[in-house]
Design brief:
With about 300 residues, the chain is an alpha+beta fold. It contains eight helices and 18 strands. The protein folds into two domains: about 5-10 and about 175-295, 2,3-Dihydroxybiphenyl 1,2-Dioxygenase, domain 1 (Roll), CATH 3.10.180; about 15-175, 2,3-Dihydroxybiphenyl 1,2-Dioxygenase, domain 1. Strands 1-12-13-14-11-15-18-17-16 form a nine-stranded mixed β-sheet. The two termini are about 25 Å apart. InterPro entries: Glyas_Bleomycin-R_OHBP_Dase, Glyoxalase-like_dom.
Length: about 300
């Protein structure tokens, strides 16, 4: 049995933050899964990424630490992004899913709304970084971030991302993946009582559509579904859940692929263990891949 509340306009998923022990390990693992990984890019506050871009406008951000000293200095100065990353690695290890990021046209307004709702994760962050183009040249992209968090969930946060200076168009070769993935379908969080965090997710997603069921709650973000499942629900759909304790935690990412046969053939060719479950192909976590990856059509 499920129940629904009526919706406002949902806020679209932008990307996922996936801490990794090293970008080299992430590049090797994600490449073996058939993803095209963009060149490494450095943040001005000591972290670095190597993103995976999709044709639906979403992307993955595998996040590494380029300079621990720089990260520590910026965290002490109040940089929420770096402080949350350091806390995640301390509590959960080097690999995982630490944040869901939503698209924003006005991050300053988002911050004020989060503050009034009692959900602010800290002061907004503005920064710029170079973006390498396909021809080898670079351009600069600028961002403004507004953070939302719940103190009961120290291992997960959300933020809204406004691009104050748009990055150049993503090169077509970075949008083409050997596994045939075209976008993100679902992000799965895990918590013993998902409804305890329903208010947080409703407010950040800017919508009230909630599908409640025996395993948790689902939110339609327009271009993807955000699910918060109980451990039992996660195990029913995605296999054993290794986490424990209260608070939202990242559990799985579900990708939309053009053909599952293409994904399966690639996994076999690269000797990647997988399983069939509920019309999906599941790949368990490994170094460079901190949560379950699931593929569906």
């Amino acid at each position: 049995m499920s129940s629904q509340k009526s919706l406002a306009n949902p806020r679209a998923l932008d990307h996922l933050v996936l801490p990794v022990g090293s970008l080299a390990a992430a590049r090797a693992r994600l490449g073996s899964l058939g993803f095209t990984v963009a060149p490494d890019a450095l943040h001005p506050f000591g972290t670095e990424n190597a993103c995976i871009f999709f044709r639906d406008g979403t992307y993955l951000e595998p996040l590494g630490v380029a300079s621990r000293e720089t990260c520590e200095a910026h965290a002490l100065a109040g940089n929420v992004f770096v402080a949350r990353d350091r806390a995640f690695r301390f509590r959960c290890g080097e690999d995982g899913l630490s944040a869901i990021v939503l698209k924003s046209a006005d991050a300053a307004a988002d911050h004020e709304r989060f503050r009034k709702a009692g959900l602010s994760g800290g002061e907004p962050l503005e920064f710029s970084r170079p973006f390498k183009l396909a021809d080898g040249t670079s351009a600069e992209a600028s961002f403004r971030l507004a953070f939302a968090a719940d103190l009961r969930a120290p291992d997960f946060f959300l933020f809204c991302c406004e691009r104050t200076r748009e990055r150049p168009a993503i090169a077509d070769e970075l949008l083409s993946h050997a596994n045939g993935v075209i976008g993100l379908s679902r992000v799965v969080l895990v918590e013993e009582n998902p409804s305890d965090f329903q208010y947080l997710l409703e407010e950040v997603l800017l919508q009230r559509e909630v599908t409640a069921h025996s395993f948790g709650v689902d939110f339609d973000a327009g271009n993807a579904v955000i699910s918060a499942l109980t451990p039992a629900g996660f195990e029913a759909w995605f296999g054993q859940y290794p986490g424990k304790g209260r608070g939202l935690r990242g559990g799985a990412v579900v990708f939309r692929a053009s053909k599952l046969e293409t994904v399966e053939a690639l996994l076999r060719r690269n000797d990647i263990a997988y399983e069939h479950r509920h019309h999906r192909l599941l790949v368990r976590p490994a170094p460079g891949q901190g949560v379950v990856f699931a593929f569906e059509e």
